[in-house]
Amino acid sequence: MSAQPLSVVCERVRMQVSLELDGELSMLEKKMLDSHLTRCPSCRAYADEIVSFTGELRSAPLEPFDGNVVVRRPSRVGSLRTQVALASAAAVAIAVVAAALQLEPSTSAQSSASTKLPSVFPTLMDGQRESEQVVADARAFKRHHGDVLAI
């Protein structure tokens, strides 16, 4: 294996070698693969090795397996918890940003700015009420769209 990274074409060709072994390439793809393999000694060596290994593996006798195979389904609870946590964090972040943007800027920021920002909420309580309304609106939106996630 060389230390140089493969080109995009060589990477694609190496994936197609396996598809060809399983008879999954179209005639056009097979022609393109053959054409590349005649021009690229590195991919040709790779293909020869894969074809040889696959041939040996497929011709080997089957071995009986006496053990049990248990396939477990992935738990949706962990995934759902992660989604709920992310949705909650996003809603809180939106509420905080919305509240911060709506509050009156400090006097030091006003003196350095060339233009004044309009003050929508004169008190912190008004800004807090607005941020709570943003969170309530997000919950209502989720319920309205039938999303299983709760904020």
Gist of the model:
The chain is mainly alpha-helical.
Structural features:
single chain; 151 residues; mainly alpha; 2 domains; disordered C terminus; 6 helices
Descriptive account of the structure:
The protein is mainly α and about 150 residues long. The protein folds into two domains: about 10-60, no CATH class; about 75-145. It has helices spanning about 10-20, 25-40, 40-60, 75-100, 105-110, 125-145. Helix 1 (about 10-20) crosses helix 2 (about 25-40) and helix 1 (about 10-20) runs parallel beside helix 3. The radius of gyration is 31 Å and the shape is elongated. It starts with 7 loop residues before the first helix and ends in a 7-residue tail after the last helix. Mean pLDDT is about 75; it is low at about 110-115 and about 145-150.
H-E string: HHHHHH
State the helix count: 6
The major sheet is characterized as: none
Tell how many strands the DSSP assignment holds. 0
Q: What fraction of residues sit in β-strands?
A: under 5%
Radius of gyration: 31 Å
How many separate domains?
2
pLDDT under 50 segments (min length 5)?
109-114, 147-151
Shape: elongated
Rounded average pLDDT: 77
Structural class: mainly alpha
Separation of the first and last Cα atoms: 51 Å
Tell me the helix content.
55-70%
- Oligomeric composition of the shown chains: single chain
